[in-house]
Amino acid sequence: MKKPNVLVSVLNWNGKDKTIKCLRSLFNSSYQNLSVVVIDNASHDNSSETITTLFPQVKLIQNLKNLGFAAAQNQGINFALENGYEYIWILNNDTIIDPQALHLLVAQMDSDSTVGSVSPVLIESEFPDISGIQFCGCTINWEFQYFEKFKRLDDALVSQEKNPEAFCLWGTALLIRTSILKRLGGFEEKLFAYFEDVDFCVRLIRAGFRSKIVPNAIVFHDGADDPTKRPPYYVYLNTRNKYFFWINHLPRTQRFSFTRHYVAGALLLASSWHEINDNQKETATLFAIWDALLGRGGMWNEERIVPSWLPSLLLSHPYIWANFLRGNFYLLIRQALQYVFSRSK
Hints:
alpha/beta, three-stranded antiparallel beta sheet, globular, 345 residues, 2 domains, Spore Coat Polysaccharide Biosynthesis Protein SpsA, Chain A
């Protein structure tokens, strides 16, 4: 019996060497009925020419500018829909796949029509054993608005069975039914990058499907969980898109309260960059708050400048603003009195 046809969609942005390693691992897969499309987001490292030379069987889509993860992967999704693929595997270029991974993912999807998307266990490339689990699913806590990311496979498997309505996956190596994408559409392009995967999972769940981790499927992925090692555009996108995600999916009755707590938390984050004199990430965070509240999507513009007086106003005493926004008026009064007494000495 012929296996379902799978399109693997790999996004490249100045990551030639990583993309080449990823593609080599793909073509070493035990699953044969696959095709690969590489979407290049206006790289300037000779990526397109090198990929075309080394992998002539790969379909290459070249963009004239960086469209971000969501819009570029939607190009791959549209290609899959137009050409009749049954599944699309959204795959980061900084991954190396185990030869059996795709076979196991497809088998899970074929065995259960209620499953709309699946992911392998993601292992840190630096720690290539089961102790180096980077991601094996996450659960959304709707009451307190946070994600519980699992590092233990047993915990993830329990959660996906007991709380399927809240179990979500990353887009790092996400296999999706194209029939569902035809119905729901692809990733939310306003987000540009980050949170578009869990946003899609929520839409998928609300359409009556489930997402699952496939325990024996393994993909190795580069990791950088420490935010201090991330560039300013990551801080901007992650901070802004956090607001977009929750404000889009929370009930209307919770949105005002969430907005107050979001701004308070984001100001404290900006203050943490202010304290270590990281002006770029401080600026990125402040603009993330501003753009979130205005509903502005798209990429971070590093040329934007915050007025010089604003950090002094907001970040010199961030806990005063945070407590005001959170309604902690007792703490606010106490802090104000402490400030007055300290000045009078």
